[in-house]
UniProtKB/TrEMBL annotation:
Keywords: Aspartyl esterase, Hydrolase
InterPro entries: Pectin_lyas_fold, Pectin_lyase_fold/virulence, Pectinesterase_cat
Family matches, as Pfam families: Pectinesterase
Naturally occurring in which organism (per UniProt): Hibiscus sabdariffa (roselle)
Name of the featured protein: pectinesterase
Similarity comment text for this entry: Belongs to the pectinesterase family.
Length: 392
């Protein structure tokens, strides 16, 4: 008789190849649960969910069988490049082919308060670790090998981390952070209905002037904590269920895909099972908000575009395609009608079955050209002052 635990172990190893090094049984359970969730929710998820884990192996070169083969044989020569007056490059590879085998070790090696741009080049693989970049480490770039090839994952929840904000698999508190071509995951299991403390953040950005190109953010619920500061997201993929982009940041999301994993609802039901955003602007004096331009929203469930986490919540969707998972009212005031007069929720030239404005909540605005112009480009986040200096 085959040991059922061995069958589970074999399935995890087959799914992840060699990228998770000797995971504990509990970690295997978390990874297996998460992977089954994201792979079976819908055809939309099956189409866009990354991590064909066979592709995580970067060594496809054919070697002469007569010669001993090292996993580092086809590693780029003369890498990382030498330090310059403006740039320091550190290299992370699980097989020990360069400076570090973990991302956090590379972060720890960055000189405090360095004015140089430190590029942390992260090879293909799943890096199962919790990563924190403190305020003393500005000007860091995470450079992955593609968001379907390089990922950082952990499994904290609000309960295990003593707060939702602290559950983030990766947390950035420094300024001038950049991430390119990698994914951030929280692989804690999807919570059971009514379970307290199950919120699980994949990424928390709490520093000013951050930019993300071609990144993936994967979680079952509160995936991306866009906490505070000015941020730019380009060609990113963000997956979750309830409030899966939340915080009080001032951020522009451009050409991004938002995928709902909310529970399906019965046909004809008016119940709502998820929300894309929960912006936390607390007063009219706070200069924050989320703007989504040329994006798409799809997936499962019946969801809102946003909930008014704080009374002056501000979110705009422009030129965004929306499937019919969007509830007709579109938005929610957090069940507090006093917020109807202070929130700013706007839509502009969106398309798809979910973008029909008829039936929207009365406090939602269909923006005119002048109103929308404030949210449509990087001037919304003062990008002319800082973003142009980033090599995108």
């Amino acid at each position: 008789m085959v040991d059922p635990n061995k069958k589970k172990d074999d399935k995890v190893k087959s799914m992840f190849g060699r990228v998770v090094i000797n995971p504990s049984p509990k970690v295997q359970d978390y990874i297996l649960d998460f992977s089954l969730t994201i792979s079976s929710s819908s055809s939309f998820i099956a189409k866009f969910t990354p991590f064909d884990f066979d592709d995580l192996r970067r060594h496809h070169k054919c070697h002469d069988k007569a010669k001993p083969v090292s996993v580092c044989d086809d590693f780029p020569p003369n890498f990382p490049p030498p330090e310059t007056n403006t740039t320091l490059t550190l290299c992370v590879d699980q097989n020990g082919c360069c400076n570090f085998t973990t991302v956090q070790a590379a972060v720890d090696a960055v000189p405090n308060l360095s004015m140089k741009r430190t590029v942390i080049w992260i090879n293909s693989g799943m890096y199962y670790e919790k990563v924190i970049i403190p305020k003393t480490k500005p000007n860091i770039t995470f450079q992955g090998q593609g968001y379907t090839a390089t990922a950082i994952a952990w499994n904290d929840t609000a309960f295990s981390a003593n707060g939702t904000s602290y559950s983030g698999s990766v947390q950035v508190f420094s300024t001038n952070f950049i991430a390119k071509n990698l994914s951030f995951m929280n692989v804690a299991p999807r919570p059971r209905p009514g379970y307290v403390g199950a919120q699980a953040v994949a990424f928390r950005i709490a520093g000013d002037r951050a930019a993300f190109w071609g990144c993936g953010f994967f979680g079952a619920q509160d995936t991306l904590h866009d906490d505070r500061g000015r941020h730019y997201f380009k060609d990113c993929y963000i997956q979750g269920s309830m409030d899966f982009i939340y915080g009080n940041g001032k951020s522009l999301y451009e050409d991004c895909q938002m995928l709902s994993m909310a529970n399906p609802v019965a046909q004809g039901s008016k119940s709502v099972s998820g929300a894309v955003t929960a912006h936390g602007r607390g007063s009219a004096d706070e200069n924050s908000g989320f703007a989504f331009v040329n994006c798409s929203v799809g997936g499962t469930g019946r969801i809102w575009l946003g909930r008014a986490w704080r009374p002056f919540s501000r979110v705009v969707f422009a030129f965004t395609s929306m499937t019919d998972i969007i509830a007709p009212e579109g938005w929610n005031d957090f069940n507090d009608p006093t917020r109807d007069q202070s929130v700013f929720y706007g839509e502009y030239k969106c398309t798809g079955a979910g973008a029909v404005m008829k039936g929207r909540a009365p406090y939602v605005q269909s923006l005119n050209d002048t109103q929308a112009s404030l949210f449509l480009n990087t001037s919304f986040i003062d990008g002319d002052q800082w973003l142009l200096s980033y090599d995108s």
